[in-house]
Amino acid sequence: MDMNLKNKTVLVTAGSKGLGKAIATEFAKEGAVVFISSRNKENLEDAVKDIKEATDNPNVDYYVCNMKDPNTIKQMISSIVEGHGGIDVLINNAGGPPAGSFLEMDDDKWYHAFELNLLSFVRTIREVIPHMKQQGSGRIVNIASSSIKQALDNLVLSNTMRPGIVGLSKTLAQELSADNILINTVGPGSVKTDRILDLNKKKAEKLELSAEEVMAKAEQNIPMKRYGKPEEFAKAIVFLASGANTYITGQSLIVDGGLVKAL
User: Fold this and answer.
1) What is the pTM of this model?
2) Its Gene Ontology biological processes (predicted)?
3) DSSP string spanning 144-188?
């Protein structure tokens, strides 16, 4: 299948590690011009080097960007557009909010989760939409969590903010489809990332078990009996954000090996 991504300009936020890096790598394999962003320059430099070596694609670069700062978001988008004539694909991604129950979360934690996990998506979309409208096409994929379908234990911030992304995507799909701008939400579930391993570690401490025991039990609850690989998740993103997707918009997809049972 031709993804029609060669020489297309792609921005992946939070792209220096984990799922973001895996997504950027898959786009680079398709011949896209890929930009990744995060707050840490050293991590970005390492990620760009890794992606170039893995894909033989020299068109990979980075921007240092604090996704809680609207001015740096604006500057990043403007710089990419000025240098490459537009942005064809935006992948909104951000690190997950802290784990914890409702009474453990003070206002500062709520504001942080709101700014990082919802408002940053609003801000990047606001900046790219005029350029996508001008060029007559665009693809946006918002990375969320399986909490968009089913509330997760001890993750009240994620359970609150992530569904907001779905509402945003659904609304924008209605507003932007006539401009050939398609927008979807994808939630990773049982994908083996540093965040999953960290959550397992905290759960293990609470249950007085080893992290390996918690992981083994978790895998037994997954119909496919294993965690997903970041690259497996990334392939779904690439399709939805590619020229091969011509009619899917406003949808929410979970990539979790069948774990979530909600309809």
Assistant:
1) 0.95
2) bile acid metabolic process
3) --GGGTS--TTBHHHHHHHHHHHHHHHHHHHHHGGGTEEEEEEEE
